Amino acid sequence: MKKLLLVLLFIGPSIFSQQNLQDRTFFSEALFQHLSDYNKKADLAYRFNQYDKAKELFEDFTNKHLEGSYMDNFKFHNLKKKEVQLYDYDRPVFLITYASWCIPGKGEIPALNELAAQYKGEIDFVILFWDKREKAKELAEQFSSDVSIVYVDETENNGAYVVKQLKHSLGLPTCFLLSNDKKIMEIRRSVFPALNTDPETAYRENFIALETSISKNLINEYEEVYAENISID
Length: 233
Fold this sequence. Notes:
Blueprint: H1 2-23, H2 27-47, H3 51-66, E1 75-78, E2 83-85, E3 93-98, H4 108-118, E4 124-129, H5 133-140, E5 147-151, H6 160-170, E6 174-178, E7 184-189, H7 199-232
Parallel strand pairs: 3-4, 4-5
Antiparallel strand pairs: 1-2, 1-5, 3-6, 6-7
Helix pairs in contact: 2-3, 4-7
């Protein structure tokens, strides 16, 4: 009887963790099941310049089919050319995708830098550039040291999987708010203030929108997990 208890003690957690992984739906699986239908409807909306309809379709698609799934352990490179996996980040992750030909909305970068400083130690802010290393390094100068910069260079032909899943599926820029176990809590587009908006107003619009999403989707999740770990200890 004692031997049986010892066996269960050592193999039980691994069995349960494997079962939990098997019960998860991953981002790539959800895309495979639902992306084609969404693309057909979205393409039709854009063809007839129905931009509000296209926005509604995006929100409906991400809310119903992608949020609640778990992000795959995608691989990138940091600016030192070292491979970085998404699961290397232990905290909740605010992930946003950019490229040199897709300019962030006015006020977004200052808002991100401020939020990264505010939530340092609680959330990992990760900027993913779809660019060559040299270009990503140049663009990275706009961000504070509290923001982690990674990139995928398609010309090197070594990131086809992540390019297909993260870039070509939803476009860019796209924000992913991920819990510490990489569950997708929210997917959102960037805020794009009107061109004539002054810098301070544009910054405030971005800060309020991003801070609201972070507080709602990441901070509560982080605090609950932290409290559970403390009580277990």
